Automatic annotation (TrEMBL), chain A:
Source lineage: Eukaryota, Metazoa, Chordata, Craniata, Vertebrata
InterPro entries referenced in this protein's UniProt entry, alphabetically: DH_E1, PDH_E1_Alpha_Subunit, Pyrv_DH_E1_asu_subgrp-y, THDP-binding
Positions of the Dehydrogenase E1 component domain: 70-364
Gene3D superfamilies the record matches: 3.40.50.970
Ranges in coiled-coil conformation: none
GO terms, molecular function: metal ion binding; pyruvate dehydrogenase (acetyl-transferring) activity
Secretion signal, residue range per the UniProt entry: 1-27
Cofactor dependence: thiamine diphosphate; Mg(2+)
Biological source species: Astatotilapia calliptera (Eastern happy)
Keywords for this protein: Carbohydrate metabolism, Glucose metabolism, Magnesium, Metal-binding, Mitochondrion, Oxidoreductase, Phosphoprotein, Pyruvate, Signal, Thiamine pyrophosphate, Transit peptide
Name this polypeptide is given: Pyruvate dehydrogenase E1 component subunit alpha
Automatic annotation (TrEMBL), chain B:
Transit peptide is among the record's keywords: yes
Gene3D superfamilies tied to this protein: 3.40.50.920, 3.40.50.970
Protein name: 2-oxoisovalerate dehydrogenase subunit beta, mitochondrial
Pfam families assigned: Transket_pyr, Transketolase_C
Record field: catalytic activity: N(6)-[(R)-lipoyl]-L-lysyl-[protein] + 3-methyl-2-oxobutanoate + H(+) = N(6)-[(R)-S(8)-2-methylpropanoyldihydrolipoyl]-L-lysyl-[protein] + CO2
Stated role: Together with BCKDHA forms the heterotetrameric E1 subunit of the mitochondrial branched-chain alpha-ketoacid dehydrogenase (BCKD) complex. The BCKD complex catalyzes the multi-step oxidative decarboxylation of alpha-ketoacids derived from the branched-chain amino-acids valine, leucine and isoleucine producing CO2 and acyl-CoA which is subsequently utilized to produce energy. The E1 subunit catalyzes the first step with the decarboxylation of the alpha-ketoacid forming an enzyme-product intermediate.
Subcellular location: Mitochondrion matrix
Entry keyword annotation includes Oxidoreductase: yes
Length: 393, 369
């Protein structure tokens, strides 16, 4: 690739030399790069569907750089969260998303900002793609007032407009997602709700209740199972009678998608969104992905899987590397450009960390705020009859 | 099992002593565990912490009762709090096995196992996750004997769950839901304060012919170390224990909060000259009304303390019953020092929990009433 670029450079300079009078451009011109290319993507396994998403995906240069930027930001942010947790600046529970960035980036690329999304506790990536800044996310992790939930939620409870979190109880968010989809249908606004859950949650009863309601009433709900092969420490074979999670909806059509390829995810999510918007009812997508970290920060992640396995995925299917190689091999961007983006992101995350560690914690009055919605000031009973605290909302 | 050597702990209890404070905040535990004296009547003892005493109790059960089975999420490799380490290797994978992630399923399944005649010990990974199973526990397990006219029952069912605040658990790893279950006739709810109590009470729950819920204070899993008898022994249910005799104030609590109150009692003795009687309720339902009332008749003042929110917390039931029984003996209104009426907070935990200073303050007010 390096040679190819050098050749191109020389050629360009030759062209300039030939056409005298043309200004000699010192820096690389963007006319050098391929503006758009088509890539082959893996075919999706289908359940109760005649056709699936296309097997070729188009990618423009701008899109490619944007996906790269998104995924790299999420990656760096999660690694920074890991570091801060080990320094005990972040406490409580922290479930990291690195390795699965293609899912968040791909889904966001396929839906509109006015669509809705709800997920479980491994939510930092989605919080970012739904529009919250790295600064606010890190400040929420460290429990400061600048955090997206005012420091009261922590890692598992981050929210944004049209992003409903961030939910701690496994599987509890899926009926909520079906409900949001009902609201979309009721209001007739052509929006869809993307409801995410993991392979562990796929065995919860409430999911099947949601599938039934969504299919019965043809709700515009995209159920997405992010199958990272391990539910905490239990591999999918040991937890599920059927590991074909895309078929678990039985009467709901399903797709199995390569979740490490951002283009594959995007095309599948686009297909699913079109399916829902056309009024055909819900659809299930299983994204086959992988997480590099353990389940949470207290899990080393190697007692139930081998380091070799993690290394293999990192070297062969890392989503960020895959996108980068694709773009470089088709001459859609240069190595320097990627480096520049990396440096920018690093700085962004450093600044965010600075904010997150220096912002003050929420004031004590916040302890009792937002319990109820009330007009007159509500009094909250404290630990003994003589202490009463004020609550507002 | 190599996996057993490297277990991960979701509610890691290793940071109970004062952790290196980052940004000037300290994370000292709000209590100091006070071990009981070594029991001599049950045979040879061994140093064990809370999770080891639970393992010992389960080991005794699986050895003596051939129908006993243990199941729950991740129990096979030893459990996220190491309560079932080694049991699968010793007794086989048909007796100690994992369930998929489905609490309602776990309890419902447990009820079925119990009704059919086997001893079922179900583990819910955190008490905060017990709510999907709430319907099964309240509507099925508790009412089985009553509605079948004593033909069937699920007395063989015991449900164990880690319970209570842990310093960094926040909303969904710190709850104390005993009050929800106290409202349900047909169940027994038991909470130990230490390893010796835990083993005895758990064995009693398993032997008891009623469905029992056994909450284990997770913050004590490693912090509480005592000399626990190796042989099986039982501690009777529905009997509160008077840990310390006193004449001025009765202090009632259960679980971790007992250790807070013991410290408060010594503070009160030192600084106020007030002699406190400390009672560990142990069994929440059915609770030992007699012991508590006898004590209040003697002292005239009662303070009840728990981590759960004050409105509708179990202290309200105790308070109400005591004022009915001992109205004329009371010298001051009954005091409840409990958690605030908020969801269990993440960052505000040190302010939320009923620590020793709040209890001490309440005693002062009662004495000066």
């Amino acid at each position: 690739v390096q040679n190819f670029i050098t050749v191109m450079e020389t050629l360009f300079q030759l062209v300039v030399f030939v056409f005298q009078g043309a200004r000699v451009v010192v820096s690389r011109s963007f006319a050098d790069f391929t503006p758009q290319a088509t890539f082959d993507i893996k075919k999706c396994d289908l359940h109760r569907l005649e056709e699936g998403p296309p097997v070729k995906a188009e990618l423009t240069r701008e899109q490619g750089l944007q996906y790269y930027r998104t995924m790299q930001t999420v990656r760096r942010m999660e690694l920074k969260a890991d570091q801060l947790y080990k320094q005990k600046i972040i406490r409580g529970f922290c479930h990291l998303y690195d390795g699965q960035e293609a899912c968040a980036a791909g889904i966001e690329a396929a839906i509109n900002p006015s669509d809705h999304l709800i997920t479980a506790y491994r939510a930092h990536g989605y919080t970012y793609t739904r529009g919250v800044s790295v600064k606010e996310i890190l400040a929420e992790l460290t429990g400061r007032r600048g955090g997206v939930a005012k420091g009261k939620g922590g890692s598992m409870h981050m929210y944004a407009p049209h992003f409903y979190g961030g939910n701690g109880i496994v599987g509890a968010q899926v009926p909520l997602g079906a409900g949001i989809a009902l609201a979309c249908q009721y209001q007739g606004n052509n929006q869809v709700c993307v409801t995410l859950y993991g392979d562990g949650a796929a065995n919860q009863g409430q999911l099947f209740e949601s599938y039934n309601m969504a299919a019965l009433w043809k709700l515009p709900c995209i159920f997405i199972c992010e199958n990272n092969k391990y539910g905490m420490g239990t591999s999918v074979e040991r937890a599920a009678a059927s590991t074909d999670y895309y078929k678990r909806g039985d009467f709901i059509p399903g797709l199995r998608v390569d979740g490490m390829d951002v283009l594959c995810v995007r095309e599948a999510a686009q297909f699913a969104a079109d399916h829902c918007r056309a009024g055909k009812g819900p659809i299930i997508m299983e994204l086959q992905t992988y997480r590099y970290h353990g389940h949470s920060m207290s899990d080393p992640g190697v007692s139930y899987r081998t380091r070799e396995e993690i290394q293999e995925v990192r070297s062969k299917s890392d989503p960020i590397s895959m996108l980068k190689e694709r773009m470089l091999s088709h001459n859609m961007a240069s190595v320097e450009e990627f480096k520049e983006i990396d440096i920018e992101i690093r700085k962004q995350v450093e600044d965010a960390t600075q904010f997150a560690t220096s912002d003050p914690e929420p004031p004590l009055e916040e302890l009792c705020n937002h319990i109820f919605s009330n007009n007159p000031l509500l009094e909250v009973r404290g630990t003994n009859p003589w202490s009463k605290l004020k609550s507002v909302s | 099992m190599a996996a057993a050597a490297r277990l991960f702990l979701r509610g890691a209890n290793s940071k109970l002593s004062i952790a290196p404070g980052s940004l000037g905040t300290t994370h000292a535990a709000h209590f100091t565990f006070q071990p009981d004296p070594v029991p001599s009547q049950y045979g040879p003892t061994q140093k064990m912490n809370l999770f080891q005493s639970i393992t010992s109790a389960l080991d005794n059960t699986l050895a003596s009762d051939p129908t006993a089975v243990i199941f729950g999420e991740d129990v096979a490799f030893g459990g996220v709090f190491r309560c079932t380490v080694g049991l699968r290797d010793k007794y086989g994978k048909d007796r100690v096995f994992n369930t998929p992630l489905c609490e309602q399923g776990i309890v419902g399944f447990g009820i079925g196992v119990a009704v059919a005649g086997a001893t079922a010990i179900a583990e819910i990974q955190f008490a905060d996750y017990i709510f999907p199973a709430f319907d099964q526990i309240v509507n099925e397990a508790a009412k089985y004997r009553y509605r079948s006219g004593n033909m069937f029952d699920c007395g063989n069912l015991t449900i164990r769950a880690p319970w209570g605040c842990v310093g960094h658990g926040s909303l969904y790893h710190s709850q104390s839901p005993e009050a929800f279950f106290a409202h349900c006739p047909g169940l027994k709810v038991v909470i130990p304060r230490s390893p010796i109590q835990a083993k005895g009470l758990l064995l009693s729950c398993i032997a008891d012919k009623n469905p029992c819920i056994f909450f284990e204070p997770k913050i004590l899993y490693r912090a509480a170390v005592e000399q626990v008898p190796e042989d099986p022994y039982t501690i009777p249910l529905s009997q509160a224990e008077v840990l310390q005799e006193g004449s001025d104030v009765t202090l009632v609590a259960w679980g971790t909060q007992i250790h807070v109150l013991k410290e408060v009692a010594s503070m009160a003795q030192e600084k106020l000259g007030v002699s406190c009687e400390v009672i560990d309720l142990q069994t929440i339902l059915p609770w030992d009304i007699e012991t508590v009332c006898k004590s209040v008749v003697k002292t005239g003042r009662l303070l009840i303390s728990h981590e759960a929110p004050v409105t509708g917390g179990f202290a309200s039931e105790i308070s109400s019953t005591v004022q009915e029984e001992c109205f004329l003996n009371l010298e001051a209104p009954i005091s409840r020092v409990c958690g605030y009426d908020t969801p269990f907070p993440h960052i505000f935990e040190p302010f939320y929990i009923p620590d020793k200073w709040k209890c001490f303050e309440a005693i002062k007010k009662m004495i000066n009433y």
